[in-house]
Amino acid sequence: MKSSLYPTQELRRRALAWAVKLRVNPKVIRVQEMRRKWGSCSSAGTVTLASDLVDQDPRFQDFVIAHEMLHLRVPTHGRLFKALMSAHVPGWRELEDLRGTSRPTRGGAGGQ
User: Fold this and answer.
1) Is 39 helix (H, G, I), strand (E, B) or coil?
2) What span, in angstroms and rounded, lies between the C-alpha atoms of 110 and 75?
3) Comparing C-alpha atoms, which of 60, 72, 53, 70 is closest to residue 97?
4) Average pLDDT of adjacent 10-residue blocks, the chain of 112 residues
5) Total-model pTM
6) Is there a contact between 51 and 34 (Cβ–Cβ < 8 Å)?
7) C-alpha to C-alpha distance for 38 and 106, rounded to whole angstroms
8) Which has the closest alpha carbon to 24: 63, 61, 71?
9) DSSP state letter for 91
């Protein structure tokens, strides 16, 4: 059953499920206000997700979460990263196009 009472916790739960699926181990998953990005991943292993991501379509949420989690394995947006995105998030390129239109002030869905 999907919880709608605590959307931030649901987003964190979704991120943990993606971590298991992608076999990555983020040190910390944070959900906080972000003005320019939907998410980020630090080299120290902290994955940060924008709190207003909870208002977005679940498919877009998955795109952002998978994007950030994959940066724990591949730090750049090179061929390997794109191949992994295609394997785990079919149609991700269409979602990447949406990231700029759904949040005009931000620089990128995933950031780095």
Assistant:
1) strand
2) 12
3) 60
4) 72 96 97 93 96 93 96 96 96 82 49 42
5) 0.85
6) yes
7) 8
8) 71
9) T
